[in-house]
Structure formats: C-alpha cells, structure tokens
Amino acid sequence: MCGIAGTYHWPDGQAVTERLTETLAHRGPDGSGTYSHTAGTGEVHLGHRRLAIIDLSENGAQPMTSDGLALTYNGELYNAPELRAELRAAGVRFRGTSDTEVLLEAWRRWGTGCLPRLRGMFAFAVFDERTGELVLARDQLGIKPLFLLRRGDGLVFASELKALAGVRGAKLQVDPAALVASLLYYWVPDSRCAYEEAEKLPPGSWLRVRPDGSVTRGTYWRLKDVAAEARHGAQPDLAAVVEESTRKHLLSDVPVATFLSGGLDSSYLTALAARHQPGISAYTIGFRAADAKFEAMPDDLTYARQVARRFGVELHEIEIAPDVLDLLPRMTYHLDEPIGDPAAINTYLICSAARDAGIKVMLSGMGADELFAGYRKHLANLLALRYQRVPRPLRRAAAGAVDRLPVAGSKRGYRSVRFAKRFLSFAELPEETAFRRSYTMYDRDALLALIDPDLAPTVDDVLGEHADVYADNTLDDFVNRMCLADARMFLPGLNLAYTDRSSMAASTEVRVPYVDVEVVKAAFAYPGRRKIAGRQSKAVLKDAALTVLPREIVHRPKGLFSAPLRAWMSRDLAPLVQEVIHDGELVRSGFLRRDALRRLAAEDAAGAQDHSKHLWHVLTLEYWYRGATSGELR
Fold first, then answer.
1. Which residue in 183, 194, 133 sits closest to 160, CA to CA?
2. Which carries the bigger pLDDT value, residue 403 or residue 73?
3. Nearest-angstrom CA–CA distance, 198 and 184
4. Rounded to an integer, what distance in angstroms lies between the CA atom of residue 228 and that of residue 204?
5. What predicted TM-score, i.e. pTM, was given to this entire model?
6. Which among 369, 293, 355 has a CA at the least distance from the CA of 318?
7. What does the alpha-carbon distance between residue 125 and residue 137 come to, in Å, rounded to a whole number?
8. DSSP 8-state symbol, 6
9. How far apart (Å, rounded) are the C-alpha atoms in residues 263 and 59?
C-alpha cells in the first residue's frame, strides 16, 4: 500500500509532482521517489510514497524503472507468486521479490491484457519511454482510489483528492451535485467527485494518454457481466473459496493483524487467519457503557473475546468516547470527500493503535454484507413484499401506531421503534425506490425541503443515477439485484473509500479478503434464496463459516461497526449542532435551509424521530465544506 501521483504535459510538472507526493506522505512513510522523462513535446513526472510490505529492500523502491518502462503503483497482488513463476518460465529475470516488479514485467509482456489476470487491489500509472504514452489503471472492484484532473493536453493524478485540490493553478470548485449526493447517501458515489473537473478512474478500467493529447479509455472487467455469468455457472465450495482468499491476503513480509468486531464476517476471517498464521493479533472497539446502553447496542466485545480465546488470538480493545470527536476536522481532511459514517473514526483509531504496536497490515471483513445480503435492508426489502399483501386498512393502522411511538426516552433509545419507523418509510414503495429509500437519508421531498430549491433538477439527476445503476443488469433474482447494486455503489462509494482513507491516515494497509474477484464470482453463483433463507441473512456464508466457527458466533445477532450517535447527539454534540444551524457555512451559502435543519434537530431532541445520523452527517458535511472552500483540505 502506498501513495502515487504524477503529471503529464502539465505546467511546472516536476514541482507539482513533488508537492502531490509530499501531500501523500502519510500513505507511505517508509520511502519516497520521483521519476522524470520527456513525453513528446512535454514531460512526464511520477511520484511515489512507500509503505514497505513485500520486499523491504531497495529492490522494491518506486517509481520502478526497467528497460524503457516506469511504474508507480499502489496496492498488493495476491497472485504475484503465480505470475512470477509464469513470467520466469518465459525467460524473465527478477532482481527482487516485490509484486511491483511482477506487475511491471506483466505489463511489458501483456500490456492492458495483464489487467484481468491480476488478483488484488491496485491503482497504478505506467509510462512507456519509447511511445511517450502514460496509462492509468484501477482494480476490478474499486478497492484502491485513483483521482485525476485533465486540462487541455495535460493530466495530473493522485491517490487522494486533497492532493489534486492543492495543485498550483488548478483551483477547484465544489460540485453541488456531489453535495446533494452526499446528503442523500452520506457519501459520494464513485461515479461522482466532490470537486468539479476532477474525476475518479472507474473500477475495472484504464486510461491511456498520448503525446498528441489524445486519450483512450477501456474497461477490462464489468461486475454486472461477472454476476450474470456466475449465476449460470456451477456453485463452488464457498468455504474453500473464502479460505483461499484469506490465505492469499496474508502474503506479507511484515506482521499482519485483523479487525475483530465479534460479528460473523470478522470472526470468520480471524479464525481462518489464525489457522494459517497462528498467534495472529486482532483489534476491536468498545464504547462507554452509558453510551452503549442509551443506543441499545449489542455487546460485541463479549463475542470478540470469545473468538479470540477459542483461536489463540491476542485481542487489543480500544474504547471510543466522545472526546474522540475532536478528530472530526482531522477526519474530514483525510476522508477527502464528505462521508458521514462514524465507522471511519473507528477504523482510524484501530489502525492507529495497530501501527503503534508495529502492525502495518490489517485484514477486514468488509464486503461480505454487500455480496451475501447481510444488511438489515436486504431482509427488510424482502419482508416489504409480504407487508404489501396485508390489507390496506391494517397497514394504515399499523403505520399510525408506529408513528406515534417515541424513538428514545430520557435514558435510553428504543432500537426496535427506530427500525419499525425506518421499515414503514419504504415498505409500500416500488422495488428500486424502496431499496434506495431503505438505506439513504431522505426521500425526494424531504431532501428538497432541506436544500436550495433551485437544486431540484440536481436531486432528480442523482436519484435517476441510482435508478439507472439498479436497472443495469440481467439478473432475475431480487436479492442478487440488491447485492449487485450495493457492490457497484455502496461498497466503493462508502465502505472501501473510508477504509482506504482512514487506514492510510494511520499509515496502515487494510486488506479485504471478501472483496476478491474469486469470492465475488462465488457470491453471485448462489441464488438469493441461499443468501436469505427464511429470516436468516447471509445463510450461505453462515453455512461456510460453520466449518470453522461455533454456532453461537455464526448465529448471533448482527453486530454494528458504528458508534452510539444518539447518545453523542443528545449530549456531547448538541451545542455543535446548534452552532452549525445558526452560523454554519452551508446555511450561509444557501445550500442548506436553516428552518429545515432546526426542525430536524428539534424532532431528534424530543425523541419523536431518530435524526442522529442525519445530524452527524450535517456536521461532517459542514466541516468538509469549510475546509474545501477555505483551502484547508489542500
């Protein structure tokens, strides 16, 4: 894991590349390097910050050059040993053991044809001194980020958006559509970018720029096609596929640890990792007892300790208290875009603690919920189909009764009431609309009531994008349609994005064994009825996990990798919310409407509705916007 940057035919390119690279220093504290060369009538400059994981010697330093090729690369190739053997058999000689050198030689031999053969997470730029061409590429599922900006014949790229925002002479404007999308989702979709002009290279794609200024784009891997093909293929041994992926993700020349929440996904990975690497350590989080009680949060720590004892894992526990919210400005800086998931703070603190203990690599259970229908929204949308068959008078009476119930008392929240209100907000809607509403922050009317009314066309554009992505498949399976939409939007837009930024802020690499091309193929080979069986979510993954884990862990209630937001909002953060309502930049700019914000806060404070997540995101959006418009994020 590293940070990469560079310029192509860009004014003052060398100085700009050096500045970009320095901005990414937290991603690679173990070394840095630059490369320069002519490219037609202009120049190319590549930069790299290294986090040394495999081949810690100078043989793994970057940018790496060899016989007319130069490569700057961020990521890990888990099938590098197999590719190395194939290339060596073809006569290639290697000077070191890094996967960087394997990638460079694979590119020399196969060009863009090597991309579908790569199994791992990556974003890289490779320059050919003979042709003067620069190619950018990104992994199949969008695990690793790559931002770019084009002007005229020039191009500049970097692992993080904040680096591009600071490019001299390239003052970037905040994109209102990205702000609208962020309010809706509490994250910015991978198809959009928080700044106008800047963009994210799409997952599974490459971009080639030539000395004459022409640009060619290509797609080498499409998730929707993989899902469709897998559905008509044989169903593999899922336990074997997950174990192989976990084993490959342990490839490292430095110590590896795991996230262990005590839930199914992290427990399964930790058990498998301990099988292949006995004595592995794990990290988990806890909260103040009062906060956890108020939020009615499950006792995840008990399960994490049970897994650790059973598999001989050294468990490190980290308590998160409200004073961690002093991290808010720092986190908005590192997250690059307005992301309102407090799990980003959890990830940062866990990775920081691991880094202090000498751990550079962590395994995460990210991705299993998206691929195997593990979120409550998946089951809830199936239940909504049954609910729609209930006679309308009974539904109307139930909705009225639930609407009158409070979501919290003076000392505790009522979790079941929150879930019921959420369910009824989408239970009678059409499929795509219901699915979107089941996990987004607002419906169309509520969103329009919150923002500048002139942005109504933008709201429709954002909602239309979700509808288009959801419909863009040939699957005849409701559950797998939801999983595919999540894997295309929710996973890269939120979970992979905050995991990358939060972990790299602590100079730590997080690997995601479930977000693996072979696991993805296996996941979509199973029909929805195997993923949700009755009222049991992730059924097929649970069956696989039972080969390793005890039943009480596999079938425990779903855990939460989140935070006690209701407790924080009703106590510690209430003054800050009022400050943003009365004197926030988003309100003063006209983007947010003060009266609508005031109403949200009042309903939440009274316990009538649970708007804690909405208000938390307003805080993160406000802090991000202040930094973006003042230049502090650059």
1. 194
2. 73
3. 21
4. 16
5. 0.94
6. 355
7. 7
8. E
9. 40
